[in-house]
Amino acid sequence: MTYLEAIILGIIQGLTEFLPVSSSGHLELVKVLMGDETVPKESLTFTVVLHFATALSTLLVFRKEVAQIFKGLFQFQWNEEFQFSLKILISMVPAVIIGLLFEEQLESFFGGQVVLVGAMLLVTALLLLMADKAKTTAKEVSYGNALVVGIAQAIAMLPGISRSGATISTSVLLKIDRVKAARFSFLMVVPLIFGKIAKDVLGGELLIESSQMIPTVAGFLAAFFSGLLACKWMLSLVKMSKLYYFSIYCALVGIVAILSVLGN
Fold first, then answer.
1. How many domains is the chain built from?
2. SS3 of residue 97 by DSSP
3. pLDDT, tens digit, for every residue of 247-264?
4. Would you tell me how many other CB atoms lie within 10 Å of the CB of residue 136?
5. What is the domain extent for residue 90?
6. Residues of the chain scoring pLDDT < 70
7. How far apart are CA 37 and CA 25, in angstroms?
8. Count of other CB atoms within 10 angstroms of residue 203
9. Left, alpha or beta for 250 (phi > 0: left; psi -120 to 50: alpha)?
10. Cβ-proximal residues to 209 (8 Å cutoff; 6+ apart), any chain
11. Helices and strands (H and E) in the chain: how many
12. In this structure, are residues 170 and 154 in contact, taking their beta carbons and an 8 Å threshold?
């Protein structure tokens, strides 16, 4: 992978992590277009590194909320901060279970599975369309809602299903306030990404060849700075109920991806 390719992938990750169009799906499609021939595990490693970059940008944008989560966890008082922290932990459970039980199967999906990515983008398009048509409400995130949204996040581990799109759409369909849904969606993934990084580092599974170290760093920085911009932009888009356009985009990309394979 060249420096330019890594930077392009980083920018795509930064933009698509927060915009509801599936960052992992776009990364896989662009890798295919670039002729990337890395094995699934190495491909997934680069994807995880880029997700780590956008997790850091999330921490920067939501630094006040993150501080409240840590404050809530260590106060051990049944207040609003502690309850929000508990909901974040509940939302992580489905993805942790799926990630641990089906890690090898998930890795196999990150190796140029264009038809799968295309089909999952169509699923994302449908979710976004349903959420866009949903009525605006002002409900808070309940414990039950946190678990359901967590299940949506676990399903979004498949490349092509937008994590932010799935979790925000599910939240909106559960009649949760749109801005609160977006905030919860962006915060709930941060512990999972840090946990994945820690697991891979401790287990010696973070495969980055020495020749790819600098391109990986370049991609990381590109994802971090583009993620900062996309996160703030997405918050305003959700507030204005502009998910319909992303639904059309995901549908078009999904159809083109599937036809590109079936036509060969």
1. 1
2. helix
3. 999 999 999 989 988 866
4. 10
5. 3-262
6. 1, 36-44, 76, 109-112, 200-212, 241, 263-264
7. 16
8. 8
9. alpha
10. none
11. 13, 0
12. no
Q: ∠ CA(16), CA(219), CA(115), 5° rounding?
A: 50
Angle at 263 between CA 262 and CA 264, to 5 degrees: 95
173-175-181 Cα angle (round to 5): 85
pLDDT in tens, 5-55: 888 888 988 888 788 888 778 877 877 777 765 545 556 677 778 888 988
Three-class DSSP category at 56? helix
Give the side-chain half-sphere CA count within 13 A for 235: 14
Amino acid present at 170: T
Q: Which amino acid is at 79?
A: N
Tell me the whole-structure pTM to 2 decimals.
0.78
Dist CA 27 CA 33 (whole Å): 10
Q: Which of 24, 27, 25, 35 is nearest to 1 (CA)?
A: 35
**Amino acid letter, 160:** G
- Report whether 232 contacts 61 (CB < 8 A): yes
Task: Report how far residue 20's alpha carbon sits from residue 62's, in angstroms, rounded to the nearest whole number.
Answer: 18
